[in-house]
Amino acid sequence: MDIGNGKKLVFVEMKMLHWPDSMATYLTGDNILFSNDAFGQHFAVGGLFNDTADQCLLEKEAMKYYANILNPFSSFVTKKLEEIKSLGLPIDVIAPSHGVIWRKDPLSIFGKYAEWADDYQEDQLTIVYDTMWEGTAAIAHEIAEAAARVSPGTAVKVFNCSKADKNEMMTEVFRSRAVAVGSPTVGNDILTSVSSTIHFMKSLKFRSKRAAAFGCYGWSGESVKILKERLADAGFLVADESIRSMWKPNDEELASAEPLVRALLG
Ligand SMILES: Cc1cc2nc3c(=O)[nH]c(=O)nc-3n(C[C@H](O)[C@H](O)[C@H](O)COP(=O)(O)O)c2cc1C
C-alpha cells in the first residue's frame, strides 16, 4: 500500500503468531517491521529500545514469552521466519505490539526464535513437585543432589509447583532436556497443583524432553503410575525408573535417585 513520501506498507500474514488473524506490517524507507505479537514480551523498559534494557532480563523475558505463548506454534514460527527472510526486506527496526523495540542488531531476535522453535533445550533438569508433609520434597531434593553428582555440568532447578510462578516454571521446563515430576498419592490420585502443572505443560506442546515420576504414598499409592501416564500424554519421553516411597523415603529409595537421573540425563 502506497502511503506517500515514496513509502509503502507491506502486509505479511502472521497466522497463529499467535492468533489466527495476526498480521505484521513492514514500512519501506524506514525499514520497520511492526511484528504484532511476534518478538514481543510481557515486559516494559523506560528507554523503550532493546539496547536500553538489562540484557539478561530482556533475554529471559523474551524467552518466557516464547515458552508460554508461542511454543505451541513453533512450526508456524519456523515457516514464517523463512518467509520473511525470503522477502529480502531490509529490517532496521522490529517493533512488536508489546515489549521492547528492537533497534540494535534487530535480527538477533530472529536468530533466537529460530533456535527456540527447533525443539529448544539446554543442559538442564527441572524438578517440579508438591507435597503435604515433605516426603515427596525430600525425594525432589535428593534427585537434585544426585544430578549434581552424576552430571555436574547440568543446571538443576527445583520448584514446589503450589508456590512457584507458573510462567517462570514453564520457562525453565522449556529450557530443560528433562523433567522430574513428583506428587504424593491423595484420594487415589495426584495433588491438583501437580495435575494442573502437567496440564499446562501439555498445552505448551513441549517435544523431545525426557521425564520421570516420583512420590510418597500411605497405602494404595497410585501417584507414580498416574504421573507417568499424564506425562506421556503431555508428550514427554517417560523413563521406566521412578521413586515410590511409603510415608517417608528410606535410604534405599533415596539411593535410587542416581539411576533415575542417569535415565533422564544419560
Ligand atoms: C487427604 C489425604 C488423602 C490421602 N489419600 C491417599 C490414598 O488414596 N492412597 C495412598 O496411598 N495414600 C494416601 N494418602 C497418604 C499420603 O500419600 C502419605 O501421607 C504420603 O506420605 C504423603 O506424602 P508427602 O509427605 O509428600 O506429603 C492420603 C493423605 C491425605 C492427607
Overview of this structure, please?
With 266 residues, this protein is α/β, with parallel strands linked by helices. The chain has helices at residues 55-70, 74-86, 107-116, 135-150, 166-175, 192-203, 223-233, 251-255, 257-265, and strands at residues 9-13, 23-27, 32-36, 93-96, 124-129, 155-160, 178-182, 210-217, 237-246. It is 38% helix and 20% strand. Helix 1 (55-70) crosses helix 5 (166-175), helix 2 runs antiparallel to helix 3 (107-116) and helix 6 packs parallel to helix 7 (223-233). It is elongated and about 75 Å long. The mean pLDDT is 96. Bound molecules: flavin mononucleotide. Flavin mononucleotide is lined by residues 131-136, 184-188, 216-221, 247.
Which helices and strands appear, and what pairs or packs with what?
Layout: E1 9-13, E2 23-27, E3 32-36, H1 55-70, H2 74-86, E4 93-96, H3 107-116, E5 124-129, H4 135-150, E6 155-160, H5 166-175, E7 178-182, H6 192-203, E8 210-217, H7 223-233, E9 237-246, H8 251-255, H9 257-265
Parallel strand pairs: 3-4, 5-6, 5-7, 7-8, 8-9
Antiparallel strand pairs: 1-2, 2-3
Helix pairs in contact: 1-5, 2-3, 4-9, 6-7
The protein binds flavin mononucleotide (FMN).
Key attributes of the depicted protein:
single chain; 266 residues; alpha/beta; Metallo-beta-lactamase, Chain A; Rossmann fold; 2 domains; five-stranded parallel sheet; four-stranded mixed sheet; elongated; binds flavin mononucleotide
Number of helices: 9
Helicity range of the residues? Answer: 25-40%
Fold-level CATH name of the largest domain: Rossmann fold
CA-atom Rg in angstroms: 22 Å
Ligands bound to this protein structure: flavin mononucleotide
Net shape = elongated
CATH class of the largest domain: Alpha Beta
Contiguous uncertain segments of 5+ residues: none
Number of domains: 2
Strand arrangement across the biggest beta sheet: 6-5-7-8-9
Q: Strand count, sense and closure of the main sheet?
A: 5 strands, parallel
The N- and C-terminal alpha carbons lie at a distance of 55 Å
CATH-defined superfamily of the largest domain: Flavodoxin domain
- In CATH, the architecture of the largest domain is 3-Layer(aba) Sandwich
Structural class: alpha/beta
Count all strands and give the number.
9
Overall pLDDT metric: 96
